[in-house]
């Protein structure tokens, strides 16, 4: 998102951070409302700027830094699976938001439609919000994996990000 920010919003992240600091707002929601209302930013970009603007010096990483941490060390070999999933998400629509968290990446539109989580050293779990859809051998109930999604798909290589997974991601996106 940072790389595309200037093309999509007309300003770079440092320029937006200057605007955010000039607003002198201390709460995330207030700053997002300002950026969206007064500057016409989309939710995703306003959220990104607010996180960066309000992050205290020396605080925990956010955004892309969190993705790097998730796929470091013994999980580094899983990064191509994450990248393949993000490539699919980027083709779904310009309103798909990629929001890294500490242990997973949330995929949002008007609401969360999926999560990507490197669960083990050999597997990435794709959680999908497909409430009401039947389970299959691959599309299993989320169970104890994550209560924020209804289904889970276990991915062990980029080959697992096939037409079936793409169809499920597209369906979850369409419902969000």
Walk me through what this model shows.
The chain has helices at 5-9, 13-23, 28-39, 43-54, 64-70, 79-90, 163-175, and strands at 97-100, 105-108, 112-118, 124-128, 140-141, 151-155. The protein is an alpha+beta fold. The protein has 2 domains: 5-54, no CATH class; 64-175, 2-Layer Sandwich (Yope Regulator, Chain: A). Strands 1-2-3-4-6-5 form a 6-stranded antiparallel β-sheet. It is elongated.
- Residue runs with pLDDT of under 50 for 5 or more positions: none
Rounded radius of gyration (Å): 17 Å
- Most strands sheet: 6 strands, antiparallel
**β-sheet strand percentage:** 15-25%
User: Residue share in helices?
Assistant: 40-55%
CATH architectural designation of the largest domain: 2-Layer Sandwich
Distance between the termini: 20 Å
Look at the helices and sheets and give the structural class: alpha+beta
Specify the overall morphology.
Answer: elongated
In the residues, how many domains can be counted? Answer: 2
As for the CATH topology of the largest domain, it is Yope Regulator, Chain: A
Count of DSSP strands = 6
Helix and strand run:
HHHHHHEEEEEEH
Total helical elements: 7
Strand order, main sheet: write it out. 1-2-3-4-6-5
Class of the largest domain in CATH? Alpha Beta
Secondary-structure topology with pairs:
Elements: H1 5-9, H2 13-23, H3 28-39, H4 43-54, H5 64-70, H6 79-90, E1 97-100, E2 105-108, E3 112-118, E4 124-128, E5 140-141, E6 151-155, H7 163-175
Antiparallel strand pairs: 1-2, 2-3, 3-4, 4-6, 5-6
Helix pairs in contact: 2-4, 3-4
